[in-house]
Amino acid sequence: MKTLLQTLETEPSVKIKFITKKNTIRIMESTRNLNYIPDKQRAGLNTPMYTKPGIIWVYDLMVKDWRAIREDAIIQNENK
């Protein structure tokens, strides 16, 4: 088990299973690094307008929108 930040440092674009507070599993695709804010026109979706330390924006494939996730969130790699 690695944190979101550790996973992104080794695999910049990876599909992951993220365990939410409600213990549901969502499949997400990270498409950003720590300082990158996605281009709204390119994404064609609601995209984050700000970033702050400790937060990583990931694209949630289930709800088809961007979500702010703490970089120390524990994730499970879908490929493992």
Question: If you had to describe this structure to a student in words, what would you say it looks like?
Answer:
- The protein is mainly β.
- It has one domain (2-77): SH3 type barrels.
- 14% of the residues lie in helices and 35% in strands.
- It has helices at 4-10, 40-43; strands at residues 2-3, 15-19, 25-29, 55-60, 65-70, 74-77.
- A six-stranded antiparallel beta sheet has the order 1-6-2-3-4-5.
- It is globular and about 25 Å long.
- The relative contact order is 0.32.
- The model is unreliable at 31-47 (pLDDT under 50).
Give a brief rundown of this model.
The chain has 80 residues and is mainly β. The protein has helices at residues 4-10, 40-43; strands at 2-3, 15-19, 25-29, 55-60, 65-70, 74-77.
Key phrases:
80 residues, mainly beta, SH3 type barrels, 2 helices, globular
Rg from Cα = 12 Å
CATH class designation = Mainly Beta
Spatially, the strands of the biggest sheet line up as 1-6-2-3-4-5
State the CATH architecture: Roll
Sketch the topology as an H/E string, one letter per element: EHEEHEEE
Coarse structural class: mainly beta
